[in-house]
TrEMBL record:
It comes from Paenibacillus alginolyticus. Residues 15-314 form the NADP-dependent oxidoreductase domain. InterPro entries: AKR (IPR020471), AKR_Detox_Biosynth (IPR050523), NAD(P)_OxRdtase_dom_sf (IPR036812), NADP_OxRdtase_dom (IPR023210). The lineage of its organism: Bacteria, Bacillati, Bacillota, Bacilli, Bacillales. This is Aldo/keto reductase. PANTHER family: NADH-SPECIFIC METHYLGLYOXAL REDUCTASE-RELATED (PTHR43364), OXIDOREDUCTASE (PTHR43364:SF18). It comes from the Bacteria.
Length: 343
């Protein structure tokens, strides 16, 4: 197992993390399907493989994911880093959602109880809340850190402009800063490269990746023929928007690269993410030991520079304005002069 520092902090995380979203049962049976016994096998297997980073959220399976993960880690909790999230709706009352001071305090206490722990290593706000002032959210997170209930804080699914505004406010006021942004990123979903990645790289915020296989699409278990099969996961939880036809075209190339390495498309897809210098850790969601083993093996797969270039060119997102304007209007004389100087 390889490890990395998470952002501009001293927190050292495994580059492959264990995502516990599948733990529990509930209204999305294609996602929530791992019970206590299988969960124990998966957690033990992950720990034995060197994973020290476990991710969950209070909204997963109505809190069952946190409960099960806390029970399964047991005495080994001190060896691990637990990340959990808040902000999604967890009850019927108006105040049981969002990023208000009231809800964050209540959500943190509830997560601590379910996880059976005295502190949360990384507390992540799960989404934005346009109804709560940013200052209120950030001050509440800082207070949770000062109280010792939370060690570090992060965000998930925030636009880069809001994360930048938050980080500036945290630094100006001496509040605990965001060290992590957990974002969707995959070979068929590279939107974060427009603004999020440059912001994180320049600000010392570590990028962790959720859904590296695009809800299983890059695992190569779906075809044009079975895509609408009511029994597959995508039929019950097709959450990530992307051009499926383009995705199948990308998979053709991924399969070729996988065959060259004696690997699987899933392993190639994860290995591509791990090769990106801006990625700290990739979350693996597994519901079978064989599936976890397959994904773990991606950590040992090194793609060639030519393969990385092929995948990059094939999947590169169209540039957005003003990014393309900036690139196209770089001064050629200065660019050439600096290139010679740096070389």
């Amino acid at each position: 197992m390889k490890y990395a520092k998470l952002g501009n902090s001293g927190l050292i995380v495994s580059r492959l993390a264990f995502g516990a979203m599948t733990f529990g049962s509930g209204n999305i049976p294609s996602v929530y399907k791992v019970g206590q016994d299988l969960g124990q096998n998966l957690v033990d297997h992950a720990l034995d493989a060197g994973i020290n980073f476990f991710d969950t959220a209070d909204a997963y399976a109505g809190g069952q994911s946190e409960e099960i993960l806390g029970q399964l880690l047991g005495a080994r909790r001190k060896e691990t880093i637990i990340a959990t999230k808040a902000g999604m709706r967890v009850g019927p009352a108006l105040v049981q959602a969002g990023l208000s001071r009231k809800h964050l305090f209540a959500a943190c206490e509830a997560s601590l109880a379910r996880l059976n722990t005295d502190y949360i290593d990384l507390y992540i706000v799960h989404k934005t809340d346009p109804f709560t002032p940013l200052e209120e959210t950030l001050e509440a997170l800082n207070d949770l850190v000062r109280q010792g209930k939370v060690r570090y804080i992060g965000y998930s699914n925030w636009p880069s402009w809001l994360a930048a505004q938050a980080l500036q406010m945290q630094r100006e006021r001496g509040w605990a800063p965001f060290i992590n942004g957990q974002m969707y990123y995959s070979l068929i979903g590279r939107d974060v490269e427009h603004d999020t990645v440059p912001f994180m790289t320049n600000s010392g915020v570590g990028l962790t990746v959720w859904s590296p296989l695009a809800s299983g699409f890059l695992s190569d278990k779906y075809t044009r023929d079975n895509l609408n099969d009511p029994n597959n996961r995508l039929s019950g939880f097709d959450f990530l928007p992307h051009d499926k036809e383009k995705g199948f075209t990308i998979l053709d190339t991924v399969r070729e690269i996988a065959r060259h390495h004696g690997a699987t498309p899933a392993q190639v897809s994860i290995a591509w993410l791990l090769a990106q210098p801006h990625v700290s850790s990739v979350l693996l969601g597994s519901s079978k030991i064989a599936q976890l083993d397959e994904n773990l093996s991606a950590g040992d797969l090194e793609l060639t520079p030519e393969e990385l270039a092929t995948l990059d060119q094939l999947t590169r997102p169209e540039p957005l304005y003003p990014n393309w304007f900036t690139t196209n209007l770089l001064d050629p004389q200065v660019t050439e002069a600096l290139k010679k100087h740096l070389s």
